[in-house]
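Recap quiz, item 2
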Amino acid sequence: MGYDLQMKVWRGDATGGELVDYTVPVEEGEVVLDALHRIQATQSGDLAVRWNCKAGKCGSCSTEINGRPRLACMTRLSTFEEGETVTVTPLRTFPVVRDLVTDVSYNYKVAETVPPFAPEPRPADGQYRMQQVDVERGQEFRKCIECFLCQDVCHVIRDHEENKQSFSGPRFFLRYAELEMHPLDTNDRRELAREQAGIGMCNITKCCTEVCPEGIHITDNAIIPMKERVVDRSFDPVTWLGRKIFRRDQLPEAQVPQGRSE
Amino acid sequence: MAAPTGIKSPTRARIAARTLRTDRWWLYPTFTALVLLAFVVYATYRAFSGQHYFAEPYLTPFYSPCVTTECVEGSAHLGTWVGDWWPFSPAVLILVIPLSLRLTCYYYRKAYYRSFWMSPPACAVGEPHRRYTGETRFPLILQNIHRYALYIALAYNVLLTYDAVMSFKSPEGEWGHMGLGSLILVVNAVLLALYSLSCHSCRHIIGGRLRNFSKHPVRYRLWGGVSVLNGRHAQLAWASLVWVAFTDFYIWMVASGTWSDPRFF
């Protein structure tokens, strides 16, 4: 059964803006993006909202709904009480372009700094082989749709603009973890994760996991395992002593095994 | 005046509110802070009180192992090898072990960073600090010792298991008896062992650090088991914390004569 939904939508650009009130007729089964499209179609044709698949797979319609980072296309209106006002704002971690559209290019710049997959040379028959358990391990990480909600909610950059220079954010720790756990990859990204990506800045408050629309256990399965690998590399005195004794620290960086051949 | 940063940065959408969340986001940090504070106050009082910690055959986990000459007769299972130089209660010497594990635990870090540090108090709620360096500098860089706290805590768990086994003696020292206190001590040992084994560092050491699971089938299976426990790490953290306080309270009451321990056989 339909009803009139009360909405507040942030309208404006980098020079200023405000929350604008709308009353939108909505139907049962609709999502927040449907309501935004209805505003666009019937009341404010110039409302800027980024969207594409309407199926929670493209990661385009990331916004903040009642203060929580969410995909507009996956937030059902039945989540809210019928008389409740639904407030929609752009992502508050990135520069605003207009209305609900933000400039997320920071993430693409960070992506360029992650060393790509570097597989070992192909065996004689030219075929790489991986066992099923090793293939399965990385599947969770590849579910990421790059909606950047985890980046948006991460307080390290949300509340501290200056940290964008030295911190990559949860989405890229996921990428570091995926590559670090890949049996065929030859790069050692642990030092990079600490020095360049700033994994030490993360204080494990799990907000990235809470907002992930794909349900990826970002903190438990990517960030903490990467932190532990950094501990192996940089903070574990026993491992450090082992490297000294067996003179592994004198090998060129790319050859330092430190458990890598395992 | 310093330039505005974070959600007040000039390029971001100008929204005055620190958060637009309408749910009760303050509930988790408030509840966490209250429970942790209550535990700290209780544990501090009990640790420094230095009395009513042993009621044959029960030794409270706060004082186990009791290793100073101050320990009451029968409570020093491992001997009093520390001697009499330790100026405080024997508990203070021992509680450093579980304290270091819990302080550096990945779950408790989330809990106290949110509830005490307010960094952040809840997701998408602005934090009050102007600067933030995370765990990159002293003292928070010491969080990286967590695995060593785990190793010591695992040994400590063996002692708590020993205490639970010893509780199946009668007050006269005969085996084959059991009281309500025995049951409480067994549950305590099990919960603390599960909490330690479900730790993220344990998961990493058991198998998480491997690149090829397929080359290490035994470690892979163990990793799978620890991963199941790890999924319940937060619940185990709370359950073991509350239960260890309850265990101490029960033995305190028995030792002080406030109530007597029901014996099953």
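Strands of chain A lie at 3-13, 16-26, 62-65, 68-71, 86-89, 96-98, 101-102.
The longest strand of chain A covers residues 3-13.
End of item.
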